[in-house]
Amino acid sequence: MNNSLFYQLPVKEVFKKLKTSEKGLTLKEAHNRLAVDGLNKLPENRAFSSLRLFLNQFKNPLVFILVVALVISYLAGNKSDSLIILLVVLMTNTVGFFQEWKANNALKKLNSAVVHEIRVRRENEMIIINREELVVGDIVELNPGDVVPADGRLFAVSNLKINEAPLTGESLPVIKETAEIKGELALADRKNMAYRETVVVEGRAEMVVTAIGAKTEIGQVAKMIKETDDDLTPLQRQINKFGIKLGIFLIIANILLFFIGVLSGRDIFEMFMVSVVVVVSAVPEGLIPAMAIILAIGMQRLAKKNGLVRRAVAAETLGSVSVICADKTGTLTQGEMMVDKFFSIKGEEKIEKNSLALKIGVLCNDGLLENPGEKEANLKVLGNPTDKAFMIKGASLGLYRREIELQEPRLNTLQFSSDIKLMATLHRVEKNGKQIIYVKGAPEKILKLSSQIESEQGAKKMGVKERNFFQTKIDEVTALGTRVIALAYMEREAEKKGEIKFDELKNLTMVGIFSLRDQIRPDVKEAIVSCQRAGIRVIIITGDHAKTAIAIAREIGFEINSKNVIDGDALDKMSDDELKKKVRGIRLFARVSPHHKLKIVSALQDNNKIVAMTGDGINDSPALKKADIGVAVGNGTDVAKEVADLVLLDNSFLTIVEAVKQGRITFNNIQKVILYLFSDCFEEMVIIGSTILLGWPLPILPVQVLWIKLIEDPLPATSLAFDETENNVMREKPRSKNQTFLPTSLQKVIAFYAIVMDVIALAIFYFYWQTIGDVDLARSVMFVTIGMSTLVYIYAVRGLKQSVFKINPFSNRYLVYATLIGFVLLISSVYLPFLNNLLSTKPLALFDWIFPFGYSIASILVFELGKKLAHWNEYGK
Questions:
Q1: Is residue 655 within 8 Å of residue 306, measured between CB atoms?
Q2: Whose CA is closest to 788, among 819, 753, 828?
Q3: What pLDDT is attached to residue 113?
């Protein structure tokens, strides 16, 4: 029978279906079922081998192009060139390998081999077994603190409350019962079922196991995690697309160049060598390692802001997020019930230390305060959520139970149960020796048992007016989605001894009602405003009831109406196409299950949105993995953190905003590197190609091209990773999912820059070649001219979204050091004899330096002019 339908059946029918009884299975039958059904384990994810992870790094088209360039260089006899390229490939792939190795452990915690022992009844005797040996039909005993070992139908409960937040997202513990429930219900409403990985908060129970392992509800979640593909990030997709286009361009350009050269009378081998030079000059060897360092720097910066990025590429993808799906419990809220407001017969009152109602809440309480004297945010209390809320509120105002009990020691307790719906404690008042019973519980129950109300003059009779007032207030507060607790007391004869009997709780004096709720995190409102300013849409997704979620959403600042709220039942009735259209206007999804979250994320992605999903529970894990960016809070479950791309170490939603900012800065820096390297690559390629077409000698030799690449690629390019010149990135709209590294405006700038600078460069070469008649000197001047402009032009590239003249040239000290080293290498190459021989250069006279200096200054001016002519509006003014 379907595991999800057992809640609809009477207990006797459940035993019959499962062929078991309250006495449990026989040892033989349990052994047989274990052999047939297997161990009670969750699905295990097949781990990638280290070799496969390493080889996966070569799927990058840019890496493939580098490998082709390596082979061509080696076959052409340029072993030093091929060695340099080989080192670049190995370094890049090694970094990528370690990143992927860390990121592919999504089910590590979920499938951990921790031994869990449980109490099971077999052959009418209670025995202790390993959780993995549990079978369908076993009778399991549940006690406070137990993690439920499998899915089961409850048939005997005593004041049982189970925390199902990790599975359903429900912030409050669920009071369980045994009666069958008719109709199709969500997991959170199946109150006669207990589910694996949920936790018993209080009470005791027995259940018959209905599902084990992969067939449990949490097993289905684990299966969804396993089956959910790790989609490529926008950055990875763009790299692949960009690499393919670059490869096609190089093939076509080299074929044309080769045949034009051969047809014009040049030697075939010479043209082959020229083709090698073109490939080497066009391939940006420094791009991939520079990107790796930029992503690593982005991760480090975010770590300092309490955001732990688990996948390097996620550091950039964060900047392109256009929708954040925020799980309410534990993400927007603190995930714990807190005392909110107090209402007496006079209306809402300020909660103070001397409040009788708060005193009752603290005394009629089994919570244990571990660290009295700490700040409210740091207080730790053991107990159920309601007791914890009152203990924390009391402690924050200096009201401690142990101090009050010195004057009013507790004599006895009537524990809360789902039948009586209240708790009562008996105390002796040391001043007069009288006894008093303090009561807290469900407001409708306390109101029914009360005949008096507490007023400024003390207890007075409760009339119809007062009773109606409290009933109206209870209805109003409950409608806001908050939990309501009523407080009352009654005096008792001092001579009367023994336990508190529920039947004697009559004629109570009602003091008032408290509203309790899961409080919004302090920085959430500010974070939401920042998201809206950055063009990011925030959607709330929760397992809570719609009323509770709507109240939270409105407090945060959302405009909520019937048209932008959907619950789980409505989602079940929608097709994927219907949801794809509907999701564009939805702000809140309530009462959702794990598969709903997956469906929502997919619908948003189908609308070309880049989606970040936040969460803290096991139930969030599949959606976290499916989203472009999965975000887990630091105090969430281990499974959620293992699946996530980003972990908020401080549980602050504001950290997501900081992560988006760093992601945008990271993308900008990647774009600067691409602009820098490709402008130079394109410039060198056009110069070489033009001289071939014009029939001129090569203006720069292959070894000189490689030396320039040695100057520009490793240090200057990677130093751009430390750039933080953009201050207004959070006032821009998210970039399109399909936006490339080089949009049309950037391509125009590169084309304008390359054409103008190439004309100037060719003119300089022609002047030395024809006027002075020294080709080697002409090549040396050209070599220094291009090399120097490379070291100067990088400062122009820093002005990606603003004028370079508004940027402090010394603000990036790493870039300053890199360019100084570059200048040393460049000057050494023309004045050191062994480098003259290696690079075929000649020492330059003082006059010869005029052209490199002038050309370098021109590179900045031409770049700035190119930005203006290309109307680079989307990149700022």
A1: yes
A2: 819
A3: 35
CA-CA distance, 457 to 455, in Å (whole number)? 5
Dig out the tokens for 652 from the structure: 């602050």
What is the set of active-site residues? 327
End-to-end CA distance of the chain: 66
Beta bridge partners of 349: 342
Residue 290 CA to residue 88 CA, distance in Å, equals 10
Q: How far is CA 844 from CA 763, 771, 827, 848, in A?
A: 18, 16, 10, 6
Burial 665-680 (b: 16+ CB within 10 A, else e): bbbbbbbbbbbbbbbb
Per run of 10 residues, the mean pLDDT along the chain (length 877 residues) is: 79 94 94 93 64 66 67 70 65 56 42 64 91 94 87 92 77 85 85 89 90 87 63 63 73 79 76 68 67 77 80 76 84 83 93 93 90 75 86 92 91 85 90 87 94 90 94 88 91 76 91 90 86 91 82 87 88 91 92 85 92 80 85 73 80 85 86 83 81 84 77 78 76 77 80 90 92 89 93 88 84 91 92 88 92 94 86 46
**Sheet with 565-567, edge to edge strand ranges:** 307-309, 646-648, 629-633, 611-615, 323-327, 537-541, 588-590, 565-567
Contacts of residues 803-811 at CB distance under 8 Å and 24 or more positions apart, as own/partner, are 803/864, 804/860, 804/863, 804/864, 805/864, 807/725, 811/725
**Residues paired with 342 in a beta bridge:** 349, 514
The CA-based dihedral angle spanning residues 283, 288, 290, 295, taken in that order and rounded to the nearest 10 degrees: 150
**Strand pairing category for 125-130 and 347-349:** unpaired
Tokens 């401690």 belong to 400
CA distance linking residue 696 with residue 399, whole number of Å: 92
C-alpha–C-alpha distance, residues 868 and 460, integer Å: 81
What is the predicted pLDDT for the residue at 86? 72
Q: Which three-class secondary structure state does DSSP give residue 194?
A: strand
How is 4-53 classified by DSSP, letter by letter? GGGGGS-HHHHHHHHT--TT-B-HHHHHHHHHHH--S-PPPP-PPPHHHH
Q: Where are the alpha helices (DSSP H) in 607-653?
A: 621-626, 638-643
In 3D space, the residue among 617, 554, 597, 565 whose CA is nearest the CA of residue 331 turns out to be 617
State residue 833 phi and psi, 5-degree precision: -55, -45
Residues of 849-861 as b/e, b for ≥16 C-beta within 10 angstroms?
bebbeebbebbbe
CA atoms within 13 A on the CB side of 730: 16
By three-state DSSP, how is residue 344 classified? Answer: strand
Q: Give backbone dihedrals phi and psi of 175, rounded to 5 degrees, phi first.
A: -80, 125
Which among 539, 543, 537 has a CA at the least distance from the CA of 567?
A: 543
> Which tokens in the block code for residue 108?
């590590």
How far apart are alpha carbons 528 and 121 in whole angstroms?
A: 52
Q: What is the pLDDT of residue 578?
A: 92
Listing DSSP states for 500-536 in one string gives PPGGG--SEEEEEEEEEEEEEPTTHHHHHHHHHHTT-
Tokens of 411: 């004599």
Angle CA 444–447–448, to nearest 5: 85
Rounded to two decimals, the pTM is 0.69
Q: Which residue has the tokens 């794990």?
A: 594
Q: 3-state SS string over 445-486?
A: HHHHHEEEEEECCEEEECCHHHHHHHHHHHHHHHHCCCEEEE
Longest dimension (CA), the chain: 123
| Helix (H), strand (E) at residue 120 | strand 117-122
Degrees, nearest 5: CA angle 776-779-781: 110
Beta-strand relationship, 483-492 and 508-520: antiparallel
560, 532 Cβ separation under 8 angstroms: no
Quick one: tokens of 677?
């390297």
**3-state DSSP of 699-765:** CCCHHHHHHHHHHHHHHHHHHHHHCCCCCCHHHCCCCCCCCCCCCHHHHHHHHHHHHHHHHHHHHHH
